[in-house]
UniProtKB/TrEMBL annotation:
Membership in a protein family: Belongs to the diaminopimelate epimerase family.
Major place of residence: cytoplasm
Record function comment: Catalyzes the stereoinversion of LL-2,6-diaminopimelate (L,L-DAP) to meso-diaminopimelate (meso-DAP), a precursor of L-lysine and an essential component of the bacterial peptidoglycan.
Catalytic activity, as annotated: (2S,6S)-2,6-diaminopimelate = meso-2,6-diaminopimelate
SUPFAM superfamilies cross-referenced by the UniProt entry: Diaminopimelate epimerase-like
Residues given in the record as substrate binding sites: N13, Q46, N65, G75, N76, N155, N188, E206, R207, G216, S217
Assigned keywords, A-Z: Amino-acid biosynthesis, Cytoplasm, Isomerase, Lysine biosynthesis
Subunit structure: Homodimer.
PROSITE patterns: DAP_EPIMERASE
Pfam families in alphabetical order: DAP_epimerase
Cell compartment(s), UniProt: Cytoplasm
Protein name, per record: Diaminopimelate epimerase
The organism of origin for this protein: Sabulicella glaciei
Length: 273
């Protein structure tokens, strides 16, 4: 079987995008892991599958991490999928449903795209955490970090604020925190260093994908969590290793808006079976 795909990325957070709007791809979890393998397959942080939406949105998008696990949200992947469909249709706006909620995407001037990622979920049950807890101060710790801020953007995030990111060994503490007992569904772990009330550095150890060059939902979570801790205004620029995203936790409706670039690297065909 041959499956066409497009290789895209948002600030280096990279995706294999496949189209299941006309017929299911039939990919098993094992096949997804193989495609995501950077030596035996194409390689990706996430597989992004375009599907028809039965509930009336223009598009349904499904996300799988490179370990094969499914995720309810993927900000950079949503931006890439939206850009692909907006270019295909010549439209400037798109309604999107994901397992984590209903989103809206729009084309901005200068080749940027903005996604309304919906409202963050702030209750411990919605992250989810393993037991009742104030999500502003989750008592998780690892070398160099203590006390995270948790929320969900349709997927679980914990953000740790530190004075100097360069002192952390994220490759070592990231996987420990991803599987912390406080996180029954595991979690995406953000490490943030404030540079001002409107700017921060962020590095994310992603659930099911590890260290990535950028993380869209992680940037949304970091913006929300910084404001909740009184460290940031509602509009912030987030600098990640792969580049910058503009975030706003909008006061009027509590939605998080994320704006940034997208890129297509190449297209190809996956040979399966
Ligand atoms: N690893 C995440 C999904 C991808 C998130 C990231 N690539 C983004 O841009 O939001 C999870 O398991 O919840």
């Amino acid at each position: 079987m041959r499956l066409p795909f497009r290789k895209m990325h948002g600030l280096g957070n990279d995706f294999v995008v496949v189209d299941a709007r006309d017929r299911p791809t039939g990919l098993t979890e094992e096949a997804i892991r193989l495609i995501g393998d950077r030596h035996r397959g194409v390689g990706f942080d996430q597989l992004v599958t375009l599907e028809r939406d039965a509930a009336g949105a223009d598009l349904f998008i499904r996300f799988h991490n490179s370990d094969g696990s499914e995720a309810g949200a993927c900000g950079n992947g949503t931006r890439c999928a939206a850009a692909l469909v907006l270019d295909e249709t010549g439209r400037n706006r798109l309604s999107i449903r994901t397992a984590g909620g209903t989103l809206a995407a729009e084309r901005l001037p200068g080749g940027l795209f903005r996604v309304d990622m919906g409202a963050p979920r702030l209750d411990w049950r919605d992250v989810p955490l393993a037991r009742p807890c104030d999500t502003l101060h989750v008592p998780m710790a690892a070398e160099g970090v203590r006390g995270g801020v948790a929320c969900s953007m349709g997927n679980p995030h914990v953000t740790f604020f530190v004075d100097d990111l360069d002192t952390l060994e994220i490759g070592r503490i990231g996987p420990l925190l991803e599987r912390d007992p406080w996180l029954p569904d595991r979690g995406n772990i953000g490490f943030a260093q404030m540079l001002g009330r409107d700017r921060m550095r962020l590095v994310v150890w992603e659930r099911g994908a590890g260290l990535t060059l950028a993380c869209g939902s992680g940037a949304c979570a970091a913006a929300v969590n910084a404001h909740r801790r009184g460290l940031a205004d509602r509009a912030v620029t987030i600098e990640m290793p792969g580049g910058e995203l503009r975030l706003e936790w909008r006061e009027s409706d509590g939605h998080v808006l994320m704006a940034g670039p997208v890129a297509t690297a190449f297209s190809g065909e996956i040979a399966l079976g």
